[in-house]
Design brief:
Layout: H1 2-12, H2 26-37, H3 61-74, E1 77-81, E2 92-98, E3 107-113, E4 116-120, E5 129-134, E6 138-144, E7 159-167, E8 170-173
Antiparallel strand pairs: 1-2, 2-3, 3-4, 5-6, 6-7, 7-8
Helix pairs in contact: 1-2, 2-3
Amino acid sequence: MAKPMIRDLARRGRRTGDEPAGRRSRGRQVACGLALCGLAWFASPGVASGAASPPASGRSPAAGLNLAIGAVKAAGYTPADTSGYDPGRSLSVIIGILTGSADGHPQQAFLFHDGRYVGVDAGVASASTSWVWSTNDTVALQYQLYRPDDPMCCPTGGATTVRFEWLGGRVVTADPLPSADWNAPLSRR
């Protein structure tokens, strides 16, 4: 099922003749990234998920990290923190910043099970997300909290930690995820 979708993305991403030779269109880059990582799609509601890539066994740790970075880049994000990624853990994370961002916002946490991409932390990216700690099956992320009148540079609402767990073959949140609504009393924006 993944291959027809990837082929379709690649077909739509073919050069039109209007772009310089040797330069791939965004659709082609995404399709290549998805094919490399074994992903069929990226979704966004809740703890969004994609079709998992093949098992990481037999890969070197560096190869596993490179494939995980490829998944982040294929989603249009630039890896900012890979210290929470460990392909040997049931659940690990890479924090990405939207590629091309001038101010480091928005950020998204990309979750991996045994080195395979399984989804993101939230359907809507956050202003500031950081990895705090991990156990074998739990990842703790910290979100800076903004009051409605706070500028993007200076959140005054403190921070909250949200745990994500690998449970029953999927990622679940163990703590409430703060709102992304800018008008909420405390928001992760």
